[in-house]
Design brief:
Blueprint (H helix, E strand, L loop, with lengths): L4 E7 L3 E6 L4 E6 L2 H9 L6 E6 L6 H10 L2 E5 L4 E5 L6 E5 L5
Parallel strand pairs: 1-4, 4-5
Antiparallel strand pairs: 1-2, 2-3, 6-7
Helix pairs in contact: 1-2
Length: 101
């Protein structure tokens, strides 16, 4: 049985900040097609699920790369997202708020 691995992504014009739930690792990459393609190549369709904020045009390259690779993802409005701090490095990571959970 394949376990779902959630990867949170905070998006800005210059950077993409990823937090991998399974490994507990934080990774920052350039918000550029080549860096995104290299990161996405290391993901596993059917296992990895990317949760990102809906940021208009700044998530476009990532969305296209994920769709092309068959990686599932979900976009969420930042107004409905809270931020937690990673205990190791203090970097923010998006955590989707789910009513009733």
């Amino acid at each position: 049985m394949i376990m779902q691995n959630y990867v949170g992504c905070d998006i800005s014009k210059q950077w993409l900040d990823f937090f991998d739930e399974a490994s507990g690792r934080f990774r920052q990459i350039d918000n550029q097609a080549d860096a995104i393609a290299a990161y996405v190549a290391g993901l596993c369709p059917g296992r990895d699920f990317i949760v990102m904020e809906a940021t208009g045009v700044h998530d476009r390259l990532l969305r296209h790369a994920l769709a092309k690779a068959g990686i599932a993802f979900s976009r969420h409005n930042p107004a409905h997202t809270t931020t937690m701090r990673n205990r190791r490095d203090g970097a923010p990571r998006p955590i989707v708020s789910t009513p009733g959970c």
